[in-house]
Amino acid sequence: MAVDFGLQGQVAIVTGSTSGIGHAMADALAAQGCNIVMNGLGEMNAIERARAEMAETHGVEVLYHGADMTRPIEIADMVRAAKAEFGELDILVNNAGVQHVAPVEDFPEDKWDLIIAVNLSSAFHATKAAVPIMKEQGRGRIVNIASAHGLVASPFKSAYVAAKHGIMGLTKTVALEVAQHGITCNAICPGFVKTPLVEAQIADQAKARGISEEAVMRDVILASQPTKQFVTFDQLNGMLLYLVSDLGASANGAAYQIDGGWVAQ
């Protein structure tokens, strides 16, 4: 039986929503009646097909904004565009992310800068632009998609782990600042989900460790998760919908681990 989370007519921005976790989350919000601002990389015809399909399937408005997550001006423009088009902004999901895997002594400086910009700084810039709108409304929901790597570390991921730990600090600080304005800010910390990003990590880890991709899957990726299973999009969406609904009004500044028991070890 479908659950109604009371989100009909709300407006949500989901960064990095042209594929993977972000796309699944945008679709879940659209299914609840939210109007969506999609954002992310990809081939424009494919993005347009995905946008049109989401709008038609769920009977909502879906816009695409191509803000580059390394450019603060474009991020702020995305938030302004959402408010200009829909008159409000109820939900911000900071999901955009990139990855590079290498030993710290070999880690390229440009990759470090890119990962910090996309995985951490973009969430700051989007939140900075969104909070005044949400304060004026007297309500808002900010959900940062962190990672189990926001709570623990793994080798060869210095930039990613640093960025995700930073997201946890940003989440807590914003939560305290907005707590009396009807706004919440929380983080979802997934374990491994079989997204294009993780599939690329499997190949990168195999190269870095000098082992096969099958061995990476068995001995590296799912070795971290006691369930030995990937986290699914539906499992993440369930937590997202709780947090952005009125049911989640007292959840604030928290990290929600959806990781098959990874961080419990």
TrEMBL record:
The keyword Oxidoreductase belongs to this UniProt entry's keyword annotation: yes
An example Gene Ontology biological process: monocarboxylic acid metabolic process
GO molecular function: 3-hydroxybutyrate dehydrogenase activity; D-xylose 1-dehydrogenase (NAD+) activity
Annotated transmembrane regions: none
Domain of life of the native organism: Bacteria
EC number per UniProt: 1.1.1.175
Keywords noted in UniProt: Oxidoreductase
NCBIfam families in the record: PHB_DH (TIGR01963), PRK12429.1 (NF009093)
Family from the record: Belongs to the short-chain dehydrogenases/reductases (SDR) family.
UniProt name for this protein: D-xylose 1-dehydrogenase
Organism: Caulobacter vibrioides (strain NA1000 / CB15N) (Caulobacter crescentus)
